[in-house]
Specification:
Oligomer: single chain
CATH architecture of the largest domain: Alpha Horseshoe
Number of domains: 2
CATH class of the largest domain: Mainly Alpha
Number of helices: 10
Order of helices and strands: HHHHHHHHHH
Keywords: TPR repeat
Low-confidence stretches: none
Largest sheet: none
Protein name: Tetratricopeptide repeat protein
Pfam families: TPR_17, TPR_19, TPR_8
Organism: Desulfurivibrio alkaliphilus
Shape: elongated
InterPro entries: TPR-like_helical_dom_sf, TPR_rpt
Amino acid sequence: QLALADKAMGSYRQALRLNPQFAPAWYNLGVLLREAGRTNEAIEATRRAAEAAPEMKEAWYNLGVLHGQAGQSDQEIAAYQRLLTIAPDFAPAWLNLGAAHGNAGRLAEAIIALERAVELAPRQPKALLALGSAYAASGQTVKAGEILQLLRPLSPQLADQLADLL
């Protein structure tokens, strides 16, 4: 498995020597580097994909994920915000943006993003849990309780997690 991934990385690097602006090769190289646990190299490859193809939403999404894994919240937020300029109705990006703001201690911004995620995907349990948790953390327990009622039939386990915060 590892040898196959190394061979694939070599093939992508060879393609990039021929065409340094070939975004799919940068993107796929970034995915392989991420899977190999080489986060900084994965960030660089994914950034190059996003630069070469600014409308490639997968690159911006993965760039946000990678920056989050590296603890780089400002870059994580910037990647999701950039993605949302080209895909404003992409609920997973709103969810991750809300989580990134929450992790950075920006609860007001987190709530705005998470409300949008829930608006776009009202039956998505993880989005509901994140929004309910943000409401609870900001002292908005009535709103958190309303989210709890929406979450309970969708995912009793996640509802229990939210209930523990109230």
